[in-house]
Amino acid sequence: MSNSEIFYGEVLGTAVLILLGAGVVAGVVLKKSKAFGAGWVAITFGWGIAVLAGVYVSTEISGAHLNPAVTLGIMIVNGGWGQFWVYVLGQLTGAMLGAIGVWIGYYGHFIAHLTDREEEGGSRTPGVRAFDEPKPVRERRAAGHGEPGPVLGIFSTAPEIRVYWQNVATEILGTFVLVSVVLATGVNDALQVTAIGGLLVALTVLGIGLSLGGPTGYAINPARDLGPRIVHALLPLPNKGGSDWSYAWVPVVGPLLGGAAAAGIHQLVF
């Protein structure tokens, strides 16, 4: 595959992944949405379907990595390091475009949600225990500083309990499972030539979300978290709060370590 094919395929596949994945989170979180309050199970199924769609639209173009941790694992096993950054740049670009698509699709809902919360005197992040905040704290959130903003969870992940070593460990475990399945699918000729391989990866993501997603929101993909987090930081949304850059390294480092570990074990076994 040429560099242009890889870049285009990864942009397309990752954009579809984030558009549908972050889109289901927006539908569940934003008050004016018809899916408001549908819950965690709806989110995990939405992300699983998002992976399936992203894989199918890009497999024939770029191989559908859609994830720097997957790219890292595949290249540790198979080589091809000269195209590593082409994959990663495509994935990051696609993730940002997908996040922008969610913002456009839910623009009125974002405005209504944030306006209602400000009028109610709260700027709390979904998934974080509610507490009464002093006015200076709310003002810092509205300015984009300090604690995560109330809609950041639509774009990127955040832990329920912020203990960095545990958060990193959870991301390592989830990504280890994902990349192990991807690599195992790649060595099975029967799965490589059918649509079943993509379905198995999507079901694996669903399983990770249900089993290991609770502690951190299961980024298991550096581009999935970093790209939309950048978009959140740049979007002109009123009272959106901070982008939580102090946590941003966790969903990058953890998945990369998990992908590398999966590749190492794969080489020992296969």
From TrEMBL:
Topology class, membrane: Multi-pass membrane protein
Signal sequence, renumbered to the chain: none
PROSITE patterns with a match to the protein in the record: MIP (PS00221)
Compartments, as annotated in UniProt: Membrane
Start-end of Basic and acidic residues biased regions: 130-144
Family membership: Belongs to the MIP/aquaporin (TC 1.A.8) family.
Record protein name field: Glycerol uptake facilitator protein
